[in-house]
């Protein structure tokens, strides 16, 4: 069956993610973009509608197999929007999406169905994607470039675990400013240790603390700067476990919490409640209690959740390559990134 | 159409169709006025419509919904008028677009119900206030999806509309408990979230709804329970109240009460819930945070 065969590209991506071949979301983002670029240039499609269906089946497949994965579907959603935009500019029809204005002004004649086959559509989409790829590649540099606006001399910055974006951000600031960084170690994976070692190599004053010491240290911290796994549609976070506690401590001492996030981490999906099964995953408990503990393992239950839900009230600012935005503005960023009909596929 | 006819047409829609909200009835009435209008200019037509609106406001139905629906409709007329030069074309466009407009209004509730029912999870306890058609349908839909949940409804004085809501839920087989308005604080610790409708949504993203909603929202915030509002987008209106005193009197009291009584001694029908207390708004435009409301209004009125 050709239908199944043609999905081999996305199946490979899914299995690579499952087998942790890509650990950084940036790698997943780039891989997804390349995958779609290939699909668009070599795939069999005649109209924008057919192409959009090809992309949508891929999104569905990823969401079925990896319900926690946000980066790959987000990249594909954005590309859907690119396709829509290019189709609209080529066919000179406009689709304003759902808005009050559209509700009032729409006429029966301008309903778009994306089914016309247009000659230059393929090349114009590919041009647009090339631009998009450059945007992806420069995203973390653009975020790092804003470091000096947020980090000032002699400040104490707290961060949790390891995030490549945060690392780059702090190192950029360290070129011009002298400041202290407190790294929360992030048990049970202790990614904070690697982070601290890397920061220290760049001559940043670095202190590592245990997760339990967060509250004690928070009173002297000027800013909390963290990365995140996903930004949810309400402005809340799905971030590494332990970050909710850090954010609450920061709230208690009125310390601003800044979240560095690439645009592809903004996810248009709401999580009804954070206890939802699809929200969290549990990693192997071996890191919490080693198997060597022996017989006691029969008598206890060990959980090792990977994520925390952090409500939007605890976040002060999101920093993306476009600049800073408050959580209440996330809905607007989403409407610029994706088409409303593609939010829930 | 003269005043009496408008009034009759408007009241007939509401009486005959239980499921139509007052705002939609008002918009349908205005469409009817356009159809029968013999005016030759846009200005004359607008005067006709405004007279019609006044007639509707003087019935004893809630003015909040009538007002926002009519406001949107007048904007619709202005935008249609800008698109053409001659009046006959304009009238044709208005009627064409009008049908689509009303069709979309009719679809709105279905969209909201679809969005909101996802938030009602198995085993949850929901608190709601008074009677709202869209909340009722959302609960019904969730029930049809075989979710087990429990609903608490406030009795909602002075008209005790909660009783009706409770009856309708029980008729569906949804476990439902009627509680006192004064028991909102008592019940709050047990429930998982609050779902209410709205008569109007103001520019700040706050809502105008049956009196008692504000109390419930304040309680919910204190106990950190999500406060969800289900509302159609035609209820968005360009009002920016800062407090309860800023709500127009016609919103708070029916026209007969306004004429005959000392307003200080009458209970208000609605109250204003500021946006800080609202978690999310479920609308036919999607799930919105309160701050998105002003965005939508600005796009329309710019």
Automatic annotation (TrEMBL), chain A:
The keyword Protein biosynthesis applies. The keyword DNA damage does not apply. SUPFAM superfamilies: NagB/RpiA/CoA transferase-like (SSF100950). Its main location: cytoplasm. GO terms for molecular function: guanyl-nucleotide exchange factor activity; translation initiation factor activity. Keywords: Cytoplasm, Initiation factor, Protein biosynthesis. It is found in: Cytoplasm, Cytosol. GO terms for cellular component: cytosol; eukaryotic translation initiation factor 2B complex. Component of the translation initiation factor 2B (eIF2B) complex which is a heterodecamer of two sets of five different subunits: alpha, beta, gamma, delta and epsilon. Subunits alpha, beta and delta comprise a regulatory subcomplex and subunits epsilon and gamma comprise a catalytic subcomplex. Within the complex, the hexameric regulatory complex resides at the center, with the two heterodimeric catalytic subcomplexes bound on opposite sides. Belongs to the eIF-2B alpha/beta/delta subunits family. This is Translation initiation factor eIF2B subunit beta. It comes from Acanthoscelides obtectus (Bean weevil). The lineage of its organism: Eukaryota, Metazoa, Ecdysozoa, Arthropoda, Hexapoda.
TrEMBL record, chain B:
One of its GO terms (molecular function) is translation initiation factor activity. The keyword Protein biosynthesis applies. Its main location: cytoplasm. Pfam families: IF-2B (PF01008). GO terms for cellular component: cytosol; eukaryotic translation initiation factor 2B complex. It comes from the Eukaryota. The keyword Cytoplasm applies. SUPFAM superfamilies: NagB/RpiA/CoA transferase-like. Keywords: Cytoplasm, Initiation factor, Protein biosynthesis. It is found in: Cytoplasm, Cytosol. PANTHER family: TRANSLATION INITIATION FACTOR EIF-2B SUBUNIT ALPHA. Component of the translation initiation factor 2B (eIF2B) complex which is a heterodecamer of two sets of five different subunits: alpha, beta, gamma, delta and epsilon. Subunits alpha, beta and delta comprise a regulatory subcomplex and subunits epsilon and gamma comprise a catalytic subcomplex. Within the complex, the hexameric regulatory complex resides at the center, with the two heterodimeric catalytic subcomplexes bound on opposite sides. Belongs to the eIF-2B alpha/beta/delta subunits family. Acts as a component of the translation initiation factor 2B (eIF2B) complex, which catalyzes the exchange of GDP for GTP on eukaryotic initiation factor 2 (eIF2) gamma subunit. Its guanine nucleotide exchange factor activity is repressed when bound to eIF2 complex phosphorylated on the alpha subunit, thereby limiting the amount of methionyl-initiator methionine tRNA available to the ribosome and consequently global translation is repressed. This is Translation initiation factor eIF2B subunit alpha.
